[in-house]
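Most newcomers find our protein records easier to grasp once they have seen one. The structure tokens are whole numbers drawn from a learned vocabulary of backbone shapes. The record below serves as our worked example for the rest of this section.
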Amino acid sequence: MAGLRSKGGLAFFAVTSSRPALAARALVVASKSDTEGALTGAMIALMLEHLGLPVVRRLGLGPTLIVRSALLSGDVDVYPEYTGNGAYFTGTEADPIWRTSQSAFDTIARTDAGRGLVWLDRAPANNTWLIAVQGDLARREGLATMADFAGAVRRGLIRLAASTEFVESPAALPAFEAAYDFHMPHDRIISLPGGDTAMTARAAAQGISGVNAGMVYGTDGALSALDLVVMGDPKGAQIVYEVAPVIRAASLERDPRIRPTLAALFKGLDAATLRGLNAGVSVEGEPPEAVAERYLRLRGLIG
């Protein structure tokens, strides 16, 4: 589904109709099949185990709709989800409530409460669609926000690499154009069929085919390894995607320590931190669980 924030592969996995025997006494922690999902899912599992709770991991279960369905059916107890995906769960993508942090969180939390789900405290990092500009160009022209970017487009300075979806979806590039009053000429766009931001970021950083700007997500790991400047979106043209643990209410009742324990974790996951952690997997090639465990130990969140 267009817009659903689930970075990485979209392979589908079967969802079992009943939970494993072990899960009758264990909390099932799942994630989507993407780098950030695997990282944050592993962190949740490790934090719950630190509380002494038995955990079954189903990390990399599949794309958004597969994992969401497993949570609703009770096959999964908790997984990390993005607030902005609530716009697609409720069919209200055009509503401006999804373009501010608090209203997006409050809306999906209130809606999901009626489904027996609880949204715990979210990370202060917006993993939405953004545009990053080659560092040298950004510094030379003083580009820091989409308003600056719009001016650079009007001066003919920008050549953009982006997915076809980003170029065509009303919620993506057209939303930026409307908010910041510019038009990106199609002959200055290198349009790719997939949504791999590693490719668009690398093209911008390396100047491939004359590209100097690329579609990215706010917490992409490649951003920490490449000299790119992410353009801020002060007008809130894009839906806000902040990651948070979503847990079944009955599962949360098992231990009152779950809420504050996971809050202590997610409050530290700002954009810079998530970029660095994602880079450990996507750039350095480390297993997500290893990156997650090292971070939690360094922060003193687990012993």
Q: What stands out?
A: The radius of gyration is 19 Å. The chain is about 40% helix and 15% strand. The first strand starts at residue 27 and ends at 32. Residues 129-230 form a domain with the D-Maltodextrin-Binding Protein; domain 2 fold (CATH 3.40.190.120).
